[in-house]
Amino acid sequence: RSLLVGYFTAILLQLLVAICLILLMKAYPTFQFSESLALLVVLLVALTWGVGPSLLATFAGAAMLIFFALPPYFSLAITGTDDKIGIFLFVIVSLTISLLASQAQRARSALEDEQESLRKSEQEARTRAQQLEALFEAVTDGILVYDADGRMTQTNTMARTMLARYVEQEHLLQPIPHRAEQTNLHAPDGKSITFDQIPSVRI
Q1: What is the tens place of the pLDDT at every residue in 28-66?
Q2: Alpha-carbon distance 85 to 125, whole Å?
Q3: Cα end-to-end distance, the chain, whole Å
Q4: Alpha carbon distance 44, 125 (integer Å)
Q5: ∠11-13-15 over CA atoms, to 5°?
Q6: What is the distance of C-alpha 134 from the center of its chain?
Q7: Can you tell me the distance from the alpha carbon of 200 to that of 137, in angstroms, rounded to the nearest whole number?
Q8: Dihedral sign for Cα atoms in the order 74, 75, 76, 77
Q9: What is the DSSP letter of 67?
Q10: What span, in angstroms and rounded, lies between the C-alpha atoms of 195 and 151?
Q11: Do 9 and 53 contact (CB within 8 A), yes or no?
Q12: What is the reported pTM?
């Protein structure tokens, strides 16, 4: 949504409104709501392109209302007090719409920036997780991860290879106390290891 397109559209739509007003006033000489169509253009432009084009739509709409819709026609002079008040109110309401549109545009931009930042963070987290997973699997030592109950939750490739060779699957699914009762563990010096000395228990 280029701003140049917004500026061009603001002028074009207000010109079309002016033409419609001329035709309406010819068909219905007592038509009294000439500012409403111009306000709709300001609102549409503000919601679509933001504050800059909506300000242009405001002043272009005011000029075309004065020139085409208010007597003396085809002149920028405003003779009637009611007409002056009407144009003044039109400008005030249009500026208010532009201000609100500017705030909404900033909020939308901030939200889009936050969403983009969140997407980048999620992508970085996924990439980091994949790298850690690849490193975990590539370690040549067997790594076993246990939960708080002593159940094995994750192993790397080397650990799975060793366990598949020496340990039954049903044994691995049991908590540490049950496994310790079924296994005669020894330290490198040949001494027996008690349940409290098992590394995964100490951690």
Answers
A1: 887 777 788 899 999 999 988 888 899 999 999 999 999
A2: 60
A3: 58
A4: 41
A5: 70
A6: 31
A7: 20
A8: negative
A9: I
A10: 15
A11: yes
A12: 0.56
